[in-house]
TrEMBL record:
Organism: Heyndrickxia shackletonii
Any one cellular-component term (Gene Ontology): plasma membrane
Protein name (record): Thiamine ABC transporter permease
Domain ABC transmembrane type-1: 22-305
Keywords, comma-separated and alphabetical: ATP-binding, Membrane, Nucleotide-binding, Transmembrane, Transmembrane helix
């Protein structure tokens, strides 16, 4: 996969000045660490030999210098630790906001395929690891590069032969690292996919906890969860095996280096080519040179994790929303509510059959339409095409004579209010949920909408009235109450077109008639399409459209269709028998 280097680095841009000063501090801190062994060498090689009466004085001076250097070094490191992490957290925030904003643009087609838990994993875990790379990556590279090069130069200066012997081990280390990095990268990517699967499983099971319990399927859910949990374990086991090979392989090479230095260094002392002070200094600097190699393994893990996190971030960012505004889309304040389907064909996926075929229909402004037909005929699909939740495969849909594709999406959707069959409410108060229809509405306007939707009374009977919390997805409310809140929310939005997908779940007669009244209030002066499952809502309709898998087979008023004795009459008598 091509790696977008430019895009990767672009996230540093807002914090460039701060980040450069962090890197400068990292440079100062790591350069200063190189001075300490040199001072030790000076003490052991020059101060503690010869005249010992003046030595103590010199050692005090060097000690003082070491203290000053330590203070500077630790102040620089403090800045790197604190501000470095802060920059990382800021970048993570930016990436997360960008990803979330992009997800908001993606269409229904995307969400039909993706699992929510998987997406949550991308937006949380993956970005956390990426931020680690963003702030630690360059800073670590600078820190360890300075130590490595600095130690190398000093070691060459102390004893070139011994230094070259040490460096002979490095190609081995390089090849070894390359091989295991590849395996590690694959493993880390798989780990991320597995934890995303766990998230998706948890999201599924916990969101549907009521269904789980009603079917007493807790054991089945535990089994499904454990399957994903075990897959994650196996994936991690594989990664840890690669890591263990890698870490211990590197460790072995490092020990070989130390042993070589001790043996060759001691031989050099015996041969009078090296003194003890230089061997001690050499061993101290070997530590500085080895540390970056040791950290290389950690850094490469961090690098791989961050890069795979970024790749997963880009996978979503690269998805273009398939429903977008045209560059010259029309902005309108209000539509009159005229809808026309012209030879509309629609299928959800290329390889699936058409749900709607060559459908044409004209709905006039302010008309009250009932859409009836057998389950799966395409009633919901028909309604989803009007606000462009999906684009038609062929033909066109016109609103006020304009193709919906030419209308600005905000304009279009602001003019359409939808009361869904499965009402979705957000956790929060009743007030907040109704105000979702129009965030700038005053409390009085919210109350007015609730009154029209027949919701005011039940709201006021709750302990905290409009400030009552409704629980996640409105669990503390009945089906009818949720529908009335949803109607109030659309009333406050005040759109010209209303789509009401009637709940199939049985509301009792009383709440059904209250919802019906609310719907009447909602439909006043607006084009209304009701996906009807109940005869009571159908009777009021100015026109009933009967939709089957063959398309629109009948349309007319209730009485006209009964006289006709076709599909509608059969549907009607069937329901009538059941009532
Ligand atoms: N997101 C989707 N992806 C693929 N196929 C879909 C999708 N949504 C619906 N379908 C299919 O499209 C067809 C029409 O579905 P639709 O929900 O529009 O029917 P409906 O008439 O509203 O049914 P009901 O009365 O049961 O709500 C069905 O065969 C359904 O399986």
């Amino acid at each position: 996969m091509h790696f977008p280097v430019k895009k990767f680095f672009s996230y540093y841009k807002p914090y460039l000045k701060l980040y450069v000063s962090i890197l400068a501090c990292a440079l100062i801190g790591s350069s200063l660490t190189l001075v300490f062994p040199l001072l030790v060498r000076y003490i052991t090689k020059d101060v503690l030999v010869g005249n010992l009466s003046t030595a103590l004085n010199k050692v005090f001076w060097i000690g003082g210098l070491m203290l000053i250097l330590a203070i500077i070094q630790n102040t620089a490191n403090f800045f790197v630790d604190y501000k470095g992490h802060e920059v990382g957290a800021r970048m993570e925030r930016d990436l997360r906001s960008e990803l979330f904003a992009h997800m908001q643009k993606l269409s229904f087609r995307f969400y039909d395929k993706e699992r929510t838990g998987q997406l949550m994993s991308r937006i949380t875990n993956d970005l956390l690891l990426l931020s680690e790379l963003y702030h630690h990556g360059p800073e670590d590279y600078i820190k360890y590069l300075v130590r490595f090069i600095g130690a190398f130069v000093i070691l060459i200066f102390i004893n070139p032969l011994l230094t070259i012997a040490v460096f002979c081990f490095l190609p081995v280390l390089g090849v070894f690292s390359l091989y295991f990095n590849k395996r590690l990268n694959k493993g880390l990517r798989r780990n991320k996919e597995r934890i995303a699967d766990i998230n998706a499983q948890v999201e599924d099971s916990l969101s549907g906890i009521r269904v789980v319990k009603s079917f007493t399927n807790e054991q089945e859910e535990i089994r499904k969860f454990n399957r994903e949990n075990n897959r994650f374990l196996h994936s991690r086991k594989d990664t840890y095996r690669s890591e263990a090979y890698y870490f211990n392989g590197v460790e072995t090479v490092i020990q070989l280096i130390t042993i070589t230095v001790i043996v060759l260094g001691s031989a050099s002392i015996v041969n009078h080519n090296l003194d003890l002070a230089d061997l001690i200094t050499f061993l101290l600097y070997i530590g500085y040179m080895i540390e970056p190699i040791q950290k290389l393994t950690h850094m490469s893990t961090q690098f791989q994790e961050g890069i795979t996190g970024f790749q997963r971030f880009m996978e979503i960012m690269n998805l273009k929303p398939d429903i977008e505004n045209k560059p010259n889309a029309m902005f309108l304040d209000k539509l009159s509510g005229e809808i026309e389907f012209r030879n509309v064909c629609f299928r959800y996926e290329e390889h699936l059959n058409d749900v709607l075929q060559n459908m044409s229909i004209h709905i006039y402004p302010g008309e009250y339409i009932a859409l009836v037909g057998p389950s799966g005929a395409g009633k919901t699909t028909f309604c989803s095409l009007i606000p462009r939740f999906y684009d038609v495969t062929d033909g066109e849909i016109l609103l006020d004579g304009m193709n919906v594709r030419d209308i600005d999406l905000q304009t279009l959707r602001k003019n359409i209010g939808i009361v869904q069959q499965d009402v979705y409410l957000f956790s929060g108060s009743i007030l907040e949920n109704i105000r979702y229809g129009n965030p700038s509405a005053s409390d009085n306007e919210v109350i007015e909408a609730a009154k029209h939707a027949n919701a005011h009374e039940f709201i006021m009977s709750m302990p905290n009235g409009y400030h009552s919390e409704i629980g996640q997805r409105g669990v503390k409310l009945s089906g009818g109450q949720k529908q009335r809140l949803s109607i109030a929310r659309v009333l406050l939005k005040n759109p010209q077109i209303v789509i009401f997908d009637e709940a199939t779940s049985a509301l009792d007669n009383e709440s059904e008639s209250i919802v019906k009244e609310s719907l009447e209030a909602l439909s006043k002066g607006r084009t209304t399409i009701v996906i009807a499952h109940r005869l009571s809502t159908i009777r009021n309709a100015q026109r009933i459209i009967v939709l089957t898998k063959k398309g629109i087979v009948e349309q007319g008023t209730h009485d006209e269709l009964l006289i006709k004795g076709g599909v509608y009459a059969r549907l009607y008598s069937k329901q009538f028998e059941l009532v």
